[in-house]
Specification:
Pathway: Protein modification; protein glycosylation. Helix 1 packs parallel to helix 4 and helix 1 runs parallel beside helix 5. This protein is an alpha/beta fold. The relative contact order is 0.11. Helices cover 41% and strands 15% of the residues.
Length: 465
């Protein structure tokens, strides 16, 4: 432990020294209203940071959006004339020596690489950094701010050390070192944002860091999808995913109708066919903080009820996303033999994801916060589409999901199975709790991201220079 900390401290010192000596020249404070929005991760899978960039651009700021370029960011980001993507190379092949040595080496190389990238951009007035991952990002961003005479804002989505503990355990030397680093370096920021009031309180009590709560809010394009847009989306997905095709045409699909929509021959309007399946959707990063065996076991219970004569609709269960455990869970899914449930795991384009959420009948969230202090953004997006949700319980979930009001909270697979059977009883009738939850979401009229950002973040930035 001491050796690792010493090595990282030495590396951090070298990074800071390099920042001070690199291109020695006088740098005036300011930055002409420019902001660097940075995440040491995939920009395409960092929606909140993309939203920050779009909000800054909307207020006349030039934005350098810095991170890995694996998946394509949203089209609004790509089309913005004020947002410039700044790629960071994704490190591969640092597999030399023991795992601990590999990790330390990766952190050192990432620190040098990230600092070099941050010092190549035009001088920003602010660096807005996502945490996690904060190692080595916080120290590097602070060093870059010293060089540029800029201000550092950290957006706390969670704690990195609690995510690491899912794999290594809380007492592992790396986890203890990461916790020490996060608390120490987190105090170097000028401003802090966080995603829940629970995290705001924890940052103050345990880290002596003052933060402002900026709840995740849906972007304007998360909304209910009209039938005329649902139909082409389902037809598009049906080309690659059989569950979107009508079961009666599964062998010779005509590509004119889907499992959920068809065109009325009399008037040419899009309608929902009788006897259609219910569309259940979940999204995930396929990581350790989401146990999808809970959903699979609940679906087994649902299937068993239909087999025993319960009058319930067939289900199409769509699980979107990419991540390290996807192959593992696909293996479990392939072992299931359902007659009334179909499961598919597509990766959706950024523009198609909100359309599918807005077309679904029910959302399921299996995110269990590693710290108990963050909220699942996927539920925020579902609520933006007026989609009721069943979400697994953890400590601060009540800040988002109101049980029996906009959805249901469950603790295990048996409870989820009972909720699915209750909600889909009588489907697709406009009676019952599923419809009541949707009506409540429509009536709630929660503020969208732009409004919330203007009220919370804009005052921190002052006036555009």
């Amino acid at each position: 432990m001491a050796g690792v900390c010493a090595a990282l401290a030495l590396a951090a010192g070298a990074v800071v020294l390099a920042a001070m000596l690199w291109r020695r020249r006088a740098v005036a404070a300011g930055g002409a209203g420019r902001v660097c929005v940075a995440v040491l991760g995939d920009l395409g899978r960092s929606p909140r940071m993309q939203y920050h960039a779009l909000s800054l651009a909307r207020h006349g700021r030039d934005v350098a959006l810095l991170g890995y370029l694996r998946d394509r960011p949203h089209g609004d980001v790509l089309r913005s004339g004020r947002i410039r993507l700044v790629p960071v190379s994704d490190l591969q092949g640092l597999r030399v020596g023991p795992k601990l040595f590999q990790y330390v080496l990766k952190v050192i190389v990432q620190a040098i690489q990230l600092l070099y990238t941050m010092l190549k951009i035009e001088q920003p007035s602010y660096i807005l950094l996502q945490n996690p991952p904060g190692l080595p990002g916080i120290a590097v961003a602070w060093a870059a701010c010293l060089f540029w005479r800029s201000k550092l804002i950290i957006d706390w989505h969670n704690y990195g050390f609690t995510i690491m503990s899912l794999t290594h355990g809380r007492n592992h030397p790396l986890v203890r070192m990461a916790k020490w680093y996060e608390k120490l370096c987190g105090r170097l920021s000028d401003h802090n944002l966080c995603v829940t009031n629970a995290m705001k309180e924890d940052l103050w009590l345990n880290c002596n860091i003052r933060a402002v709560t900026l709840y995740d809010k849906p972007a304007a394009y998360f909304k209910e999808t009209p039938l005329e847009l649902q139909h082409p989306l389902f037809l598009k997905l049906a080309k690659d995913h059989e569950p979107f095709r009508p079961r009666t045409e599964s062998v010779s699909w005509s590509a004119q109708s889907s499992a959920f929509t068809e065109v009325d021959e009399k008037n040419g309007e899009v309608i929902k066919p009788r006897g259609r399946p219910a569309l259940l959707i979940s999204s995930t990063s396929w990581t350790e903080d989401e146990d999808f065996s809970v959903l699979l076991k609940a679906l087994e219970g649902y299937e068993h009820s239909i087999s025993e004569g319960a009058k319930l609709p067939s289900l199409v269960c769509v699980i979107t996303g990419k991540g390290p455990l996807k192959d593992y869970y696909n293996g479990l899914i392939n072992q299931l033999h359902f007659k009334h449930i179909q499961i598919c795991t597509p990766w959706l384009e950024a523009e198609d994801y909100p359309l599918l959420l807005g077309s679904a009948d029910l959302g399921v969230c299996l995110h269990k916060s590693s710290s108990g202090l963050d909220l699942p953004m996927k539920v925020v997006d579902m609520f933006g589409c007026c989609l009721p949700v069943c979400a697994i319980h953890f400590e601060c979930l009540h800040e988002l999901v109101k049980h029996e009001e906009n959805g249901l909270i469950f603790k295990d697979s048996d409870e989820l199975a009972e909720q699915l059977k209750m909600l889909f009883s009588g489907f697709p009738s406009l009676e019952g709790k599923l419809h009541s939850f949707r009506k409540n979401l429509r009536a709630s009229k929660q503020p969208r991201w732009d409004e919330s950002w203007d009220q919370t973040v804009l005052p921190l930035l002052g006036h555009t220079e």
